[in-house]
């Protein structure tokens, strides 16, 4: 399996002036907690101040698109606008078509939010066939894979400062 992650950044990005929101689903909490920690760790390494990483939750991955829209609007109204948002969820295939419908809907709606909100919405949703795949992508299985949350944190800083 060749999943290498984001790789090296093309330049050093300074996140010290950014406010980044993480909105995460509460399903699969051990995996979600690791992904959130990975995203936060990487953003801190790139200079985002801890007090400027705002974390809130929604029930599940299906709620991430609308929740992200409300999350961004909430902080804009408070006069503390976000520069990027990372919706984080985990979808694991079960025995019904539920997985396919949720993956497709969430993916398309999160992509559309980039343009509707005019800010980076990073795709932080794992879509896995097994629990083991999700655990590996959250960095929970030693030596198997890295924590994808770190990639999402780096992508948020890059996209919020690059252009």
UniProtKB/TrEMBL annotation:
Keywords: Riboflavin biosynthesis, Transferase. Gene3D superfamilies: Lumazine/riboflavin synthase. SUPFAM superfamilies: Lumazine synthase (SSF52121). Pathway: Cofactor biosynthesis; riboflavin biosynthesis; riboflavin from 2-hydroxy-3-oxobutyl phosphate and 5-amino-6-(D-ribitylamino)uracil: step 1/2. GO terms for molecular function: 6,7-dimethyl-8-ribityllumazine synthase activity. It is an enzyme of class 2 (transferase). It catalyses: (2S)-2-hydroxy-3-oxobutyl phosphate + 5-amino-6-(D-ribitylamino)uracil = 6,7-dimethyl-8-(1-D-ribityl)lumazine + phosphate + 2 H2O + H(+). One of its GO terms (biological process) is riboflavin biosynthetic process. Pfam families: DMRL_synthase. Homopentamer. Belongs to the DMRL synthase family. HAMAP family: Lumazine_synth. This is 6,7-dimethyl-8-ribityllumazine synthase. The lineage of its organism: Eukaryota, Fungi, Dikarya, Ascomycota, Saccharomycotina.
